[in-house]
């Protein structure tokens, strides 16, 4: 139990056996100035935290979104490659699935760039735009057909490869978009 004695000069005396913590600073038994303590409280609100948010430019993605998309890409590709490394299949099959992953990642980034260029008014030929779409569709079809016809892979493994492939492609598109948005925001500034 604490006994507080208020004085006319705005200070008080607190009797206690323990060390008191007033606004984060250790104070033992003794007098405390209420005005000083109130000033400390307001000073804490005025202090600028060096870890406060950094000003982002218009159109620039947040650091959290950049990190999350890069993490998704690394997780997707790593999981796919780790599963491929541990798979019980012949080397030519592993090479086929590896080539499809690389082809899918490249075609998805190429398509994202073509779509973005067209949106921003940068000239893109219809042939390149069409080839970008065709390449991504072919990569997805090759993956689907390869998994469908793989008799040595159990259904759960097929689902794993399919999901890791889709995650990797989606994350590659997002990382490419983030790079492009960041570059555009820096050019505007």
TrEMBL record:
<feature type="transmembrane region" description="Helical">
    <location>
        <begin position="95"/>
        <end position="115"/>
    </location>
</feature>
<feature type="transmembrane region" description="Helical">
    <location>
        <begin position="127"/>
        <end position="148"/>
    </location>
</feature>
<protein>
    <submittedName>
        <fullName>YiaAB two helix domain protein</fullName>
    </submittedName>
</protein>
<dbReference type="GO" id="GO:0006974">
    <property type="term" value="P:DNA damage response"/>
</dbReference>
<dbReference type="InterPro" id="IPR008024">
    <property type="entry name" value="YiaAB"/>
</dbReference>
<dbReference type="GO" id="GO:0005886">
    <property type="term" value="C:plasma membrane"/>
</dbReference>
<feature type="transmembrane region" description="Helical">
    <location>
        <begin position="63"/>
        <end position="83"/>
    </location>
</feature>
<feature type="transmembrane region" description="Helical">
    <location>
        <begin position="160"/>
        <end position="179"/>
    </location>
</feature>
<feature type="domain" description="YiaAB two helix">
    <location>
        <begin position="65"/>
        <end position="117"/>
    </location>
</feature>
<keyword id="KW-0472">Membrane</keyword>
<keyword id="KW-1133">Transmembrane helix</keyword>
<dbReference type="Pfam" id="PF05360">
    <property type="entry name" value="YiaAB"/>
</dbReference>
<dbReference type="InterPro" id="IPR038972">
    <property type="entry name" value="YiaA-like"/>
</dbReference>
<feature type="domain" description="YiaAB two helix">
    <location>
        <begin position="128"/>
        <end position="181"/>
    </location>
</feature>
<keyword id="KW-0812">Transmembrane</keyword>
